[in-house]
Design goal:
The complex is a heterodimer of chains A (304) and B (364). Chain A contains 11 helices and 16 strands. In chain A, strand 2, helix 2 and strand 3 form a beta-alpha-beta unit. In chain A, helix 5 runs parallel beside helix 6 and helix 8 packs across helix 10. Chain B is of the alpha/beta class and 364 residues long. The chains are: A alpha+beta (304), B alpha/beta (364).
Chain lengths: 304, 364
Amino acid sequence: MKVGDISVSDFAGLLASQGVTIQTGPFVFRLTSHIPSIAAPVWRLYRDFPLIEPDLVDFHLVLRPAGRFARFTGRCEVVIDARRILSVFKSPAALPHLEWALNWWIYNYAHQFFIVHAAVVERDGKAILLCGPPGSGKSTLCAALVARGWRLLSDEVALVCPDTLKIFATARPISLKNESIEVIERFAPSAVFGPRALETHKGIVAHVAPPEQSVRHINADAHPCWILFPSYAADAATRLTPIPKARAFLRAASDAFNYQILGAQGFRTLAAMIDRCSCFELAYADLTEALKVIEGLGQQAHRA
Amino acid sequence: MRSAGHHSQILLKALADPASIRGLSLGEWDLLLRQARTAKVLARIAILAADMGLIGGFPEKVRESLEAARKIFAYRQRILRWEVGRIQAALHGLESPILLLKGAAYELAGLPPARGRIASDVDIMIPESALPSVEAALLRHGWEHSLLEPYDQRYFRDWMHELPPLVHRDRDGIVDVHHAILPRTSRLKPDAAKLWSSAVALGDSGLFVLSPADMVLHSAAHAFHDGEIALALRDLVDIHDLLLHFCRQPDFWPNLAPRAATLDLSRPLYYALRYAALMLGTPVPEDVAAEVRRRAPGGLVRAAMDRLVPGVLTPDHPDEPPPGQSRATLLLYIRSHWLKMPPALLTVHLCRKALFRHFPREGV
């Protein structure tokens, strides 16, 4: 059964009582929410994901009002196993905090993967990793590529299997911030958006629902072929610059969440990835031009 | 006595008898993984399961969780050993001997509690006279004070048994520099000179650890005297492991209770042996148990502790904390402070803490 197979009100009822258990690729989480306003957006953004009832889940998330005076302060919190994670927030920011909490869990516990802070899209089994710090434009490029038909794996984490280098997908909603929300609204008018959270510590945040195709083919093969380090600047000329592998290695290592935790395994995994990838820096201001350059990479590979 | 409840039995059983996790259902695993993470003992369960060759036979999700816990542990173990080396290098050339406490001691002495135990900081002890030179050397080598409020500084320097925690500016490693094992203001006053006189050198590393009996007593004091009992399950597991390990030395058990009396730690030892035996099934020889029982508190306190401690020590079902448990936690929290400080100081300290909980300072 999928989330979208039950009605929004049934979904809201489950969320507030026993919780709903959703599978996003390799992860299964149970979500209980005592913040009624998130039921409809979560239902909309996750409508194509399997709704399952296993005995064992990876983690149990609870969204709830925080503290004894929550009725007056309007403050909410995310709790995993009776412990608050992240900082407290006002209920309009609940959806971004749900997404950050899911990410938080992955960064802290999913060490069966080599985890790189990167957006990942795939076509013909070949994946592009868009690495870089917040603000570099990786989510924006990711949303645009997905609108052009690339399969979404994640706008946030590349989950690399250390043994096979296969990249696993969670295909969760793409998180856009501030100006990039309107950019994507213009670029992809048919994209399904969640509500805008106006006041978060990252500014305005809105989520784009993953295409049904990306969720349906969530387990399809994807192996890393290109690693791009985008940098957005308002007046930049679009420029794709190949970079030496050693430099790409160091940059990707610093963008990895568990490079140190995995130790030698992390080193070997990243080295093998870099070996098989072409690595570039991509400076851009104009989205359409940037996409042309990226899609050009894919076609070159096709001809070769 | 209030039983610790069926939910926590799975965790206690997994800690006391690691082989018992063989037959768990998926639903029981779900609960055990959550409780073990909360109590910070998941890596221990994972390491012991791996040593017994069990992990391969577990369901995939369980295997993933346990493997992840093992990776985190291996990483933290590397960091711990590295930090100890850095501290030693920073203090090289000073007259002061360095004695490792708790996690760092277990790890470098190769003792059983080190298995799967994740230490958040490095605890060392030095003679009190060496405090200024050691602090200066650490500050010179990149460690910094993280607590800059004058109250916090005074709290540690005047009342505690350690310097305010020092954090390395590049590596985030924390070192707690102790000159004793209980606060200056504590009701019980184990003499640090006596600890030093029986300290054990770690090969030719230049490092020392406490003697076997003192190691157990320190852990007991931390769990049942100055620490927060709600966090003491891991201390109890340490004690369990140490007792099972040291009991093979013929003079260990006969020496333990007399040593506790010498160090003014009979009461914490009583609690440690009582709750280790009760909750983890730690074998304690009857004559030692009887000797220690003579130092037990009066009937009323004993009954109160027996009601409060087991419930607080073990995480209950993560979704439904039983009513009364948070009150028990609060009572034991106040008790630990009561033992740590005289009443006037305690009043000021707790008021201050309560105040800052409601009106947090910037960046706290």
